[in-house]
Amino acid sequence: MKKVLMIVGSLRKNSFNMQLARYVEEMLAEKAQVSFMDYAELPFMNQDIEFPAPDSVAKARQAVMDADGILIFTP
């Protein structure tokens, strides 16, 4: 089964973008394994802490690498 990573451009629990992403998740229920990027803990870009990557950055990178497809829902 294909893996689809959802990236929602709002952290608010019931944002319009999250509602739309959840709707698409339902549409893909039998067709793909859907996961959501948790980026609440990601730091702002800072080359001073780029290497080694913080754990949250490493997890986000791995989630992208593991996905067969990425859907972005943004304001």
How many individual domains?
1
Percentage beta strand: 15-25%
Shape verdict = flat
**How many whole angstroms does the radius of gyration measure?**
14 Å
User: Strand count, sense and closure of the main sheet?
Assistant: 3 strands, parallel
By CATH's scheme, which homologous superfamily applies?
Answer: Flavodoxin domain
Q: Uncertain spans, ≥5 residues at pLDDT below 50?
A: none
SSE ordering: EHEHE
Tally the helices: what do you get? 2
Keywords:
single chain, 75 residues, alpha/beta, Rossmann fold, 3-stranded parallel β-sheet, 2 helices
Please explain how this structure is put together.
The protein has one domain (2-73): Flavodoxin domain (Rossmann fold). The chain contains 2 helices and 3 strands. It has helices at residues 16-27, 55-66; strands at 2-8, 32-36, 69-73. A 3-stranded parallel beta sheet has the order 2-1-3. Helix 1 links the parallel strand 1 (2-8) and strand 2 (32-36). The longest helix is centred in the N-terminal third of the chain and has 12 residues, at 16-27. It is flat. The termini are far apart.
Task: Break the fold down into its secondary structure elements and pairings.
Blueprint: E1 2-8, H1 16-27, E2 32-36, H2 55-66, E3 69-73
Summarize the structure.
Helix content is 32%, strand content 23%. It has helices spanning 16-27, 55-66, and strands at 2-8, 32-36, 69-73. Strands 2-1-3 form a three-stranded parallel sheet.
